[in-house]
From TrEMBL:
It comes from Chelatococcus caeni. Its EC number is 1.13.12.-. It is an enzyme of class 1 (oxidoreductase). Keywords: FAD, Flavoprotein, NADP, Oxidoreductase. GO terms for molecular function: oxidoreductase activity. Its cofactor is FAD. It comes from the Bacteria. The lineage of its organism: Bacteria, Pseudomonadati, Pseudomonadota, Alphaproteobacteria, Hyphomicrobiales. One of its GO terms (biological process) is intracellular iron ion homeostasis. SUPFAM superfamilies: FAD/NAD(P)-binding domain. This is L-ornithine N5-oxygenase.
Length: 446
């Protein structure tokens, strides 16, 4: 066990876009408001990567580059996407493309470029396994111990007055696939590029691959597989009756404005729930219109050529799965009332989304100090009076902060809100030694 004697003002768990934006906001605070602010991040990946398993060569962002790490808060910051393009010598060329939507590969490169500025403030290759009470004053917890484990089993312990958890979502797998979590032939979309090339699948008509899901990731993977394996049979299994387009019209897009977070938070729970239901088609189980058109064209051209290797199977829900040495058998129920059927595949990709929420295992040692599981407006978890250390959450609060909470739309503004909340609650910094030795000047007597 390696113990770090220093107590940090902030430790971030995870170093994806949310905590990267926070690193920038904390750096700004250290320069402008709180000199000496000490912060560090712990990331389980060996290096910075944003959705590495889905960095498909033909995939573009679904969000404007202006919703980068800082622009909505400070467009003059050196960490804007525009400055990244300038530093890379591509600004003019990007302008000539006449688009607000860079490729996902390029945006990942932008994030890595920004993350490289904080290389000394992030410990990669370490997974945080527990948060524990660490320091006390008069019976009150003043800091947390952040326990992490490296790939070689080495454990490290760091102390922090505030912890910000931004670990992202965990892959959500349909229940029938739970027994096969170790089978590399069955993969979640988050591991798609990591796994698909290593399976040794042959590009032959006898090869069959299923993609399960009706959202953007499922559609993108279906198209990638169609090009990657030019002769294999690819099925897109969709529970609904059709692929549904995402609503990205201007008025609807206003719900993702950072200013809307406070309005949403101020609504009663029933109104929040109704809002999330009404606008679910902006973010869940929907596909960009141009990608829907592309898939339709692919299937139409296949009909012209009397082909059948690509199929969109709508109204099909996977209700059972079984594996053997030679493949995977899926049982598909027909939502329109038809008979269930079984289909055999060599590989299955589950584009079935993510689950989010508090990691109870991680926070178990802090259970006596957690007053509530719902974060406040400033993203801080309410703590008992016996704990003054701060615990903040990023990207886990859709039900209280709105649909934008899990997206890039608010990271620039949210990071500053969290940084401000942290700085305002920190104890005053110690005065430099010379200030204690400076002679007191008395006013001249009249």
């Amino acid at each position: 066990m390696t113990m770090h004697d220093r107590t940090f003002d902030v430790i971030g768990v995870g170093f994806g876009p949310s905590n990267l934006a926070l690193a920038i906001a904390l750096d700004e605070a250290a320069r402008r408001e709180r000199p000496g602010l000490a912060f560090h991040f712990v990331e389980k990946q060996p290096h910075f990567t944003w959705h590495g398993g889905m960095l498909l060569p033909d995939s573009d962002m679904q969000i404007s580059f202006l919703k980068d790490l800082v622009s909505l808060r400070d467009p003059t910051s050196p960490f804007t996407f525009v400055n990244y393009l300038h530093e890379k010598g591509r600004l003019t060329a990007f302008i000539n493309r006449k688009t607000f939507f860079p490729s996902r590969v390029e945006f990942n490169d932008y994030l890595r470029w920004a993350a490289s500025c904080f290389a000394e403030r992030c410990s990669y290759g370490e997974e945080v396994v527990a948060l524990e009470p660490a320091a006390e004053r008069d019976g009150t917890v003043t800091a947390f111990a952040v326990r992490s484990r490296a790939a070689d089993g080495t454990e490290r312990l760091r102390r922090a007055r505030n912890v910000v958890i931004a670990a992202g979502g965990a892959p959500q797998l349909p229940e029938c696939f739970a027994p096969f979590a170790g089978d590399t032939r069955i993969m979640h979309s988050s591991r798609y590029l990591d796994r698909i090339a290593g399976l040794g699948l042959t590009d032959a008509p006898t090869t069959r691959i299923a993609v399960v899901g009706g959202g953007q990731s499922a559609a993108e993977i279906f198209c990638d597989l169609a090009g990657r394996f030019g002769r294999a049979a690819i099925d897109l299994l969709v529970r609904g009756r059709a692929l549904k387009p995402a609503d990205d019209s201007p008025f609807v897009n206003e719900i993702f404005d950072p200013e809307g977070t406070g309005t949403f938070f101020g609504q009663p729970p029933a109104a929040r729930h109704a809002f999330l239901d009404e606008f679910r088609n902006t973010n869940y189980a929907v596909v960009d219109h141009d990608l829907i058109q592309r898939i339709y064209d692919m299937l139409y051209e296949q009909r012209v050529a009397d082909g059948s290797r690509l199929a969109l199977s709508s109204g099909r829900a996977v209700v059972a799965a079984a594996t053997d040495r030679d493949g995977i058998t899926l049982t598909l129920a027909d939502s329109r009332g038809g008979a269930a059927e079984e289909r055999r595949y060599d590989a299955v990709v589950l584009a079935t989304g993510y689950r989010r929420g508090l990691d109870r295992r991680l926070l178990a040692p802090l259970a006596p100090y957690l007053a509530d599981a719902t974060v406040d407006r400033d993203y801080r978890l309410p703590m008992a009076e016996a704990c003054e250390a701060g615990l903040f959450m990023q990207g886990q609060s859709e039900t209280t902060h709105g649909l934008s909470d899990t997206l890039l739309s608010v990271v620039a503004v949210r990071s500053r809100e969290i940084a401000t909340a942290i700085v305002e609650r920190l104890p005053p910094p110690p005065l430099p030694a010379e200030q204690f030795m400076r002679p007191v000047r008395l006013a001249a007597s009249s």
